[in-house]
Write a structure and sequence with these properties.
mainly beta, three-stranded antiparallel β-sheet, single chain
């Protein structure tokens, strides 16, 4: 778990993996400690390797969005 406070915004990021599936979960919790309304934006970036070296696998990675859950799936098509 990683925690950080900046400008009266507290953030907590918890990352864990499933025991029975090749899945990683990232849960981000934000808390506004200022008492005033705040407007935030969040951007994420993932650099999947799905193999032994990124340079060998980066052109083989296929992603898809599951409309039912909003989950993003990535697989190595090779």
């Amino acid at each position: 778990m990683v925690e950080h406070d900046e400008g009266e915004i507290a953030s907590e990021l918890c990352v864990y993996v499933a025991i029975d599936a090749p899945v990683k979960f990232s849960v981000l919790t934000l808390r506004n400690r200022s008492g005033a309304s705040r407007r935030l934006s969040l951007t994420g970036c993932v650099d999947w390797v799905l193999g032994d070296e990124r340079t060998k696998t980066q052109t083989q990675i296929v992603t898809e969005l599951d409309p039912a859950t909003g989950a993003i799936f990535a697989s190595n098509a090779y």
